[in-house]
Every structure is written in structure tokens, then in C-alpha cells.
Amino acid sequence: MKEEQDYIKDIAEIRSMMERSSKFLSLSGWAGIMAGLYALAGAYIAHNLLEFNPDELFYASPNLANVVWLAIGILVLALVTAIYFSKRKADGNGENIWNATSRRLLSSMAIPLAAGGVLILVLLAKGLIGLLASLMLLFYGLALVNAGRYTIPEVRIMGFVQIALGLVSAWFVEYGLLLWAVGFGAVHMMYGIYMYFSYER
Predict the structure, then answer these.
(1) Own/partner pairs, 95-98, CB within 8 angstroms, 24+ separation
(2) Residue 159 — pLDDT band, cuts 50, 70, 90?
(3) Helices (H), 45-187
(4) How far apart are CA 105 and CA 46, in angstroms?
(5) How far apart are CA 96 and CA 9, in angstroms?
(6) Rounded to 5 degrees, what angle do the CA atoms 21, 152, 18 make?
(7) N or C: which end of the chain has fewer CB within 10 A?
């Protein structure tokens, strides 16, 4: 009986090692929570201080350049925060954050994000501002679905939620900024809280 228990324990350890080597498990719930807070703050500033609220496909705003810089700032802040918390978690687990699995994870996200980024720049130049929120959600969702193969399954689920919000936003253009805040703000915070209580606490 004892030999059988040892055998089962060995199999469980081998399975755990294989999973750790094939999946990136250092994603932090705090990174998701902070990214959500940044997004909500950015949406508030864009709507209330910069008076930016696209309600039709062709939309013009005197504050467009400021909104673009605000979006870039939020993106950089979210990336730096994600790297910081992920590295801290990896260090705590005695792992190297930059390994073959994390490289596969990033490369799987790169193509949809790069394609979406270029398309968004084209639409910006054409004045189709009303579609930006929708496309950001869609391409980010596609990147998460791709990345879900190399990390925890909840990332893939969040990707499908972002895609759904992006499609709704494409139809209801006037609610684009609100749906953007829901996707990048509320959904990220819910994901982060779930991650924290499920994997970190």
C-alpha cells in the first residue's frame, strides 16, 4: 500500500514539473488589479477631463493627441507593473521569469497585438475613432486567447470576454469608451482578485 502511495506521489510530482516547464505560472493577481485601476483612471480622465467620448465612427476631438498619450502612458504603466509583480512572484518561487515558456507566451501575443496596433494607427489617420475601443478589445482578446495555451486557463477565458466586449462595442459605438473601461478596467480587476485568492493567498 505504501509503495502504491509513493508511486502516485511520484506521478503527481512529475506531472507538476511538466506543467511548470510548459506553462508560465508567474502571472500576478496584483498586476491585473493595478492594470484595471490604471484603465479606469484613464477612462475617467479621457471622458471627464479631456471630454473624449466617441459616439460615431467618424469622430473628431481637439484633445485626441492628449488621449493618445494618455493611452500610451496607461499601456506602459500596466506593462511595467506586470513585469514587476511577475518577476517578484517568480523570484519568490525560485524561478527565472525569462525562460523558454515566457518567450513562447510573449511571441504568441505579439502577432495579434502588432497587427491590431498597426490597424489602430491606420484608423486614427483616417478619422475612424469610433472603432478604436472595439479593436483594442478585440485584438487584446485574441492575444489573450493565444497566450492561454502557455499559462493558466483563466487567461484564455478573459480573452473570450474581451472579444465579446469588442464585438458589442463595434455595434454600439456610442458606448465604446464605457465598454473599454469595462474590459480593460473591471474585467482586469475581477481577474486579478480571482488570481490572488486562487493562486497567491
Answers:
(1) 95/20, 95/26, 97/26
(2) very high
(3) 64-92, 100-126, 132-147, 153-171, 176-180
(4) 31
(5) 26
(6) 20
(7) N
Orientation angle between helical segments 153-171 and 188-195, nearest 10 degrees: 170
Using left for φ > 0, alpha for ψ between -120 and 50, and beta otherwise, residue 51 falls in left
CB 24 within 8 A of CB 148: no
Is residue 169 a contact partner of residue 133, using CB atoms and an 8 Å limit? yes
Using an 8 Å Cβ cutoff, are 133 and 67 in contact?
no
155: left (phi over 0), alpha (psi -120 to 50) or beta: alpha
Mean pLDDT over each residue of the chain, to the nearest integer? 89
The whole-angstrom distance between residue 48's C-alpha and the CA centroid of its chain comes to 24
Give the Cα separation of 119 and 177 in Å (integer): 18
Distance CA 46, CA 176 (A): 12
What DSSP character marks residue 198? Answer: I
Are residues 54 and 177 in contact, defined by beta-carbon separation less than 8 angstroms? yes
Q: All 3 cell numbers of residue 103?
A: 518567450
Q: What is the pTM of this model?
A: 0.86
Residues 81-128 have pLDDT tens digits of 999 998 898 888 887 888 888 888 899 999 999 999 999 999 999 999
Which three-class secondary structure state does DSSP give residue 77?
Answer: helix
